[in-house]
Amino acid sequence: MDHPENDELYKGLKVNKGISNAPAINPYLKKRVQRKQYTPAEFVEGILKGNITILSQAVTLVESSLYEHQQTAQEIIEKCLPHAGKSIRVGITGVPGAGKSTSIDAFGIHLLDRGHKLAVLAIDPSSERTKGSILGDKTRMEELSRRENAFIRPSPSAGSLGGVARKTRETIILCEAAGFDTVFVETVGVGQSETAVHSMVDFFLLIQLAGTGDELQGIKRGIMEMADGIVINKADGDNIEKAKLAAAQFKNALHLFPPAESGWDPRVLTYSGYYNTGIKEIWDMVEAYISFTKQNGFFDKKRNEQAKYWMYESIDESLRKSFYNNPAVIKELARMEQMVLNNEISSFMAAKRMMDIQKIV
Ligand code: GDP
């Protein structure tokens, strides 16, 4: 009798001999490869050698909001800085559907075929909402993403525009240290992100479409003023004449603006990103701008101004962060907000009290 329950006493009950349990862990499953933890010095060494895997991991640290990651990232950035700054940085903007990814693909292949190394980054503060659609979609920049000398990185998805922009700027530094001689920073032509991109690039390219004849409507004056080149995409098939007309309108409109500080007259060109026509002319324009501004000193002046701007931006950001993360501030803020809403205190006084609370701690 192997089991007492099998005694005749218990009618209708038969207990079978058990079998041993299957192992809880599948022994055939390959052990997951642990990602190697690099030291900051190893990161820097890998980046300077142009190792893309290490570069990607370093960018992930830059994008992370974890304190330790940020510390390591800052150490890497500092060591990469002396090797950065040598690329041509181009900002590319245009409304969704203007053909940014198609065009970047075409511009990129044009550059790679001439022996360049290209990094494509993006600033899209809305990507948290849209689940990182910008550059996140694998079908975008299909051709470029298969090329060895191209590094494509979607927009850092979390945080304020300022935070996202800072991360992209730091990523530029790492890419340059890794030997990328051209950096594109893409942004959607809506809202404030153009200004952020403008503050980190040498040349700002605005992609436009020909359409109903009143193309100029709906474009913010500020964006047009920032542009060093306006390019009308989809100048193909039946659209060629319309594109030419739009180009003429843009040229006229540009005459109404005061001369740019760079001394450069923004140019207007037509092209087709899809059919690959007019691409060379666009890149020739960028190169002409770079040598023009290097000659008249504006190139370095702008880079210096940008560096200064970023210093103040970083200070602003850390001040904000330390204020809003301060436990005393967190505790008091909601109550103060309610008092303002109840007209019990003025906004100004409430702000002052909050600042005082922060100082006390
Ligand atoms: P993005 O949203 O600005 O990145 O735009 P996409 O590059 O995704 O392009 C939007 C649509 O326009 C796609 O269907 C493209 O195939 C199309 N497109 C892009 N460039 C051209 C072009 O030069 N000519 C034509 N006819 N279509 C284009």
**Overall geometric form:** extended
Report Rg. Answer: 28 Å
Give the helix level as a range of percent.
Answer: 40-55%
> Termini separation (Å)?
76 Å
Order of SSEs: HHHEHEHEHEHEHEHEHHHH
Question: What is the total number of structural domains?
Answer: 3
- Please mark out the parts with pLDDT under 50 across 5 or more consecutive residues, or reply none: 128-135
Bound molecules: guanosine-5'-diphosphate
- The largest sheet has its strands arranged as 3-2-4-1-5-6-7
| Structure class | alpha/beta
CATH class of the largest domain: Alpha Beta
Average of pLDDT: 86
CATH architecture classification name of the largest domain: 3-Layer(aba) Sandwich
The number of distinct β-strands equals 7
- Please name the CATH topology of the largest domain: Rossmann fold
Biggest sheet character = 7 strands, parallel
Binned strand content: 5-15%
| Number of H- or I-type helical stretches | 13
